[in-house]
Write a structure and sequence with these properties.
- This protein has 34 helices and three strands.
- It is mainly alpha-helical.
- It has a three-stranded antiparallel beta sheet with strand order 1-3-2.
- The chain is elongated.
- The protein starts with a helix and ends with a helix.
Length: about 625
């Protein structure tokens, strides 16, 4: 293959076998190096002896391939003459591809000299020119050619060139600066114009966040923060650092776990700066970020204390935006602790304040998702668990519609995530899979490892319920392992319970019981209690499968008591149905009927749900 490539590059200039063998030996089968070394040999002229010396002068590629390629490319540039080499170096400072117009602004050469240099580079096959000057665009044939040309510049030359490029962009190409602020930022950075570069990197990050290109945004904000350290007196730029950190935090949360050390460090530093400056408006989002870190990290006690700080600050500032976000933290806290009345009160207060036109960009500052979407989604789950599934379905539709209207992928991911969990609560595996199919591509492109892991687990649960046992359990285990790796402690008992339910469907009871024991321990320690009734009921089902009837009956009783205490009507119905089924098997038909009938009779909607259908079928049998 190497010989064929040499032959194609050489065309009619057949090389002697010994030279051909030397090229192949020296290039280690790397096509680009084969091509460039062959061209170097052809351009030297002078016959076989000169060709042999040329090849031998290049170190063996197996030892120093980058240096070898660099030497080859530099030799070719040098042979084209100083004019062409200088044009290549100026172009290399601009980038892999550049316009003739920008090149002419930076080069400070006559049009004749500039065109002559480009023509030589083009004839040598080092660049491609599309169009005719002044409307031409130029592309280096390979990125390594550009790197070689750029490496020939001294440090001061590079800095001066980049400063000239930045000036040309700002003076003659303002639309490029607007659409590609990161391009301007890079040239300002390399041109030693640090203060202006920081501002440009910040603009680039903010623009990327609005496009939901959060990985780009994080890189841009981090570049700006790194440059702050190069300023003569960084302490004079505290406000700029604080702005950058507050912008970086939500973007980090979107692409990483909220509990990632980087996220924690960002909000800790931002809070220090805001407190030093005495700026309440900037202090609020740092506390909100610290609240989310604590909440997702499973420290519900700290999350509740930070919620109180948020309300204190919001009332001090008396600003509806801050009050909305304080409610946002509060309804999430009350949901997982299943303080039903308080959770509903905070959601309703938040939705009264929420306005799409005023708060549509809150996701850029608070947690990477929209508060309105979050309110509708959590309201849907709360209402489902508390026995109002039809109202919950309407709430979820409102959340999904808002998520799509916002044109903010992470907020839509948030809505779809909760829609999938709502369908799982309703025990609708086909619907779960359908939602996950829409969720996974979005999560892969715009979400975090947590959202992808959770979607994978949900898909696994759905597959086990549909009979794809081996594939489903594999999905659950893979998603669970990926989720644990993120360090997230958000909804741990619920996720472990889903894994246990999947194990039960697959006939893997002992593993399911292990998941439930872990879930109960975590729920008792963290205060994450909203799924506790189901933990006990699922434990009872697994115990019953193993023949431990007395222990199963006790677990069903615990589930029923927990659900009634929390007014979790859906979980109460499930626990009552499980216990009634056990009583029926024991011949206690009347006791079973009297247990289940009042619970079923409470419901006034949602009779198409599987839980209500199963309860009704059991009651009919018992009657």
């Amino acid at each position: 293959e190497g010989a064929d490539l040499v032959g194609r590059v050489a065309g009619g200039n057949a090389l002697p076998d010994e030279i051909l063998a030397e090229i192949i030996d020296r290039t280690d089968g790397i096509p680009l190096f084969v091509e460039e070394l062959t061209k170097t040999v052809l351009e030297t002229g002078g016959g076989i002896a000169e060709a042999r010396r040329t090849v031998s002068a290049i170190p063996h590629s197996s030892l120093t391939l980058p240096a070898s390629l660099h030497a080859s490319l530099m030799a070719r540039l040098d042979r084209l003459g100083p004019g062409a080499r200088e044009v290549a170096q100026i172009g290399a400072a601009i980038g892999r591809e550049f316009s003739y117009e920008l090149l002419s602004q930076v080069a400070q050469k006559s049009a004749t000299d500039l065109k002559a240099g480009l023509e030589r580079l083009s004839e040598a096959g080092l660049v491609f020119c599309r169009g005719a000057p002044p409307a031409a665009s130029v592309l280096f044939k390979h990125a390594l050619i550009r790197d070689a040309a750029y490496s020939g510049l001294l440090r001061n030359q590079r800095q001066q060139l980049h400063a000239r490029i930045a000036a040309a962009l700002e003076g003659r190409f303002p639309e490029t600066c607007e659409s590609q602020p990161e391009l301007l930022a890079q040239h300002l950075s390399d041109g030693g114009l640090t203060g202006r570069a920081i501002a440009a990197w910040q603009r680039a990050g903010e623009r990327a966040v609005k496009r939901s290109a959060n990985k780009e945004a994080v890189r841009h904000f981090e570049r700006a923060l790194a440059l702050l350290e190069k300023l003569p007196d960084p302490s004079q730029h505290t406000e700029r650092e604080l702005q950058l950190l507050l912008a970086l935090g939500p973007a980090l949360m979107t692409i990483q776990s909220t509990t990632a050390p980087e996220t924690r460090r960002v909000y800790t530093r931002a809070r220090e700066l805001a407190q030093q400056a005495g700026r309440h408006s900037e202090l609020f989002p740092t506390i909100w970020g610290a609240w989310l870190v604590a909440f997702v990290g499973g420290d519900i006690g700290l999350a509740v204390r930070l919620e109180a700080e948020l309300f204190d600050l919001a009332k001090h500032e008396d600003h509806p935006n801050l009050i909305l976000q304080a409610h946002h933290a509060a309804w999430t806290n009350r949901w997982v602790t299943f303080d039903l009345d308080a959770a509903l009160e905070h959601i309703e207060a938040g939705l009264r304040l929420y306005r799409f036109e005023d708060h549509g960009e809150h996701a850029l500052s608070y947690g990477g998702h929209d508060p309105g979407v979050c309110a509708y989604a959590q309201l849907a789950l709360l209402r489902t668990v508390s026995g109002w599934p039809e109202r919950a379905a309407r709430d979820m539709i409102d959340g999904l519609e808002l998520g799509r209207k916002l044109n903010h992928p992470p907020s839509l991911i948030h809505a779809l995530w909760f829609e999938a969990e709502l369908r799982q609560l309703r025990r609708e595996p086909l619907a779960v899979e359908e939602v996950v199919m829409a969720l996974l591509p979005l999560a892969s492109a715009h979400g975090s490892a947590v959202s992808t892991a959770n979607a994978t687990m949900l898909r696994g649960w759905a597959r086990t319920q549909r009979g794809e046992l081996e594939e489903g359990v594999a999905d659950v285990r893979r998603g669970l392992a990926a989720w644990r790796a993120t360090g997230s402690r958000f909804q741990v008992p619920y996720r472990l319970a889903r894994a246990a339910d999947a194990c039960r469907a697959a006939g893997q009871g002992p593993e399911g019981l292990q998941f439930l024991e872990e879930a109960v321990t975590i729920a008792e320690g963290s205060g994450d209690r909203w799924y506790c009734a189901e933990l006990h009921r699922l434990r009872g089902e697994l115990l019953l499968d193993s023949g431990a009837r007395e222990a199963a009956e006790q677990s069903f009783g615990n589930a029923l008591g927990q659900a009634r205490e929390q007014r979790a009507r859906l979980f109460e119905l499930r626990a009552a149905t499980s216990l009634a089924s056990l009583l029926r098997a024991q011949g206690k038909r009347k006791e079973a009927y009297d247990l289940l009938a009042p619970t079923y009779g409470w419901f006034t909607e949602g009779f198409d749900m599987l839980d209500l259908k199963q309860a009704k079928a059991l009651l009919d049998e018992l009657a």
